[in-house]
Design goal:
Elements lengths: L29 E5 L4 E4 L1 H6 L1 H7 E6 L8 H6 L2
Antiparallel strand pairs: 1-2, 1-3
Pfam families: DUF7455 (PF24254)
Protein name: DUF7455 domain-containing protein
Length: about 80
């Protein structure tokens, strides 16, 4: 039997290199999982521009390792 690594339940995969911003089609830097189960991907510009609104609807997020999302602190404070 070959062992398989499985991510923890509820974890969010990071953005893939080919994912595009849902707002402007630029390269995706942030993936959000919504309470209803949907996902949104944003470029760095739109992720930071709408950070205050996005933290209100997101339950989880995953950011590109080289991207600092302004909403990260707000997400950790809202729990």
């Amino acid at each position: 039997m070959t062992p398989t690594l499985t991510p923890p339940a509820g974890s969010v995969a990071g953005t893939a290199a080919d994912e595009r911003c849902d707002r402007c089609n630029a390269a995706g830097k942030l993936r959000l999982t919504l309470a209803g189960g949907g996902e949104l991907v944003f470029c760095g510009h739109h992720a930071n521009r709408y950070a205050e609104d996005l933290v209100k609807i997101a339950v989880q997020y995953a950011a590109d390792p080289e991207f600092t999302w302004r909403g990260a602190d707000m997400m950790s404070n809202s729990n």
